[in-house]
Each structure stands twice: as C-alpha cells, then as structure tokens.
Amino acid sequence: MSFDNLDTLYRQVIMDHYKNPRNRGSFGEDSVTIDMNNPTCGDRIQIHLLVEDDKVKDAKFDGEGCSISLSSASMMTQAIKGRNVTEALKMSEIFSDMMLGKDIDTEDLDLGDIEALQGVSKFPARIKCATLAWKAMEKGINEQEQA
Questions:
Q1: Do residues 139 and 36 make contact, with C-beta atoms less than 8 angstroms apart?
Q2: Which of 6, 47, 115, 129: disulfide with 136, CB 3.0–4.6 Å?
Q3: Model confidence over 44-95: pLDDT tens digits?
Q4: Strands annotated E in the chain
Q5: What start-end ranges are recorded for coiled-coil regions in this protein (predicted)?
C-alpha cells in the first residue's frame, strides 16, 4: 500500500472515531472520573474508569474538542477495556513514544486503530490533543491505586 493510500486510510479511521465515538458517556458514582483540558486549543476531556481487581473493567469518555482529541479518547477507551492496569499504562507509554516519533515495539500489545494517530507526531501542536485522554487515564489509574 502506498504512503498516500495509508495516510488516507488513517484519516478515515480517525474521522470514523470522531463522527461515531465509541464508549461516549459516563458511569455512576463507582467510577474514577478525571477531567483534563488542553488550554492551548480548548480540548476538554472527562475520562470515566471502572477499575476492579487490577483490571479496567470499562472505560468511557465525554468532552469537547478537535477530531484528534476525541478520536484518541474513543480509541483509547476501546483499547484499554478488559486489560489489566499494567497493560493499560504500558499502552499509554507506547502511545506517548509514538507521539514523540520514537520507534515503538508493539509486539506484545496490538494497538489496533490507535496506529492511525501515528501521523500526529509530525504536528507538534497537535500532540497534546492526541495525548490528553491518555494522560487522564494514567492519572485516573494512579489515583485509583493510591485510594
């Protein structure tokens, strides 16, 4: 597949998650809820996590923002559901490395649609948009573990 075709496919995946977000919404009071925003562009994300027995049983998000921010949140909630917290945090680390343009090792973890965001690394101003939900998830898991 040529680079142009791959780029087009990735854009389609991003727009699909933006227009048809997965896991949008919230839970009851038993969830960990983290609000974060990106003041440079106005993105605002709220991540809701149900963490039990060291596992992310479910994840949802809500918020407002650009297609990159909301697509990333949709992809992230899909990817971490059912994983143990160590895997979820490892995925976040891999995603951060990907956003920084580093070579990533995805042998142990299938990133699925998340790889569509790889091109964001070429646009430094958009990296914060893509990583916002991931940073909120990390904060939520860390707060849950300290509680």
A1: yes
A2: 47
A3: 999 999 999 999 999 999 999 999 999 999 999 999 999 999 999 999 999 9
A4: 32-38, 43-52, 55-64
A5: none
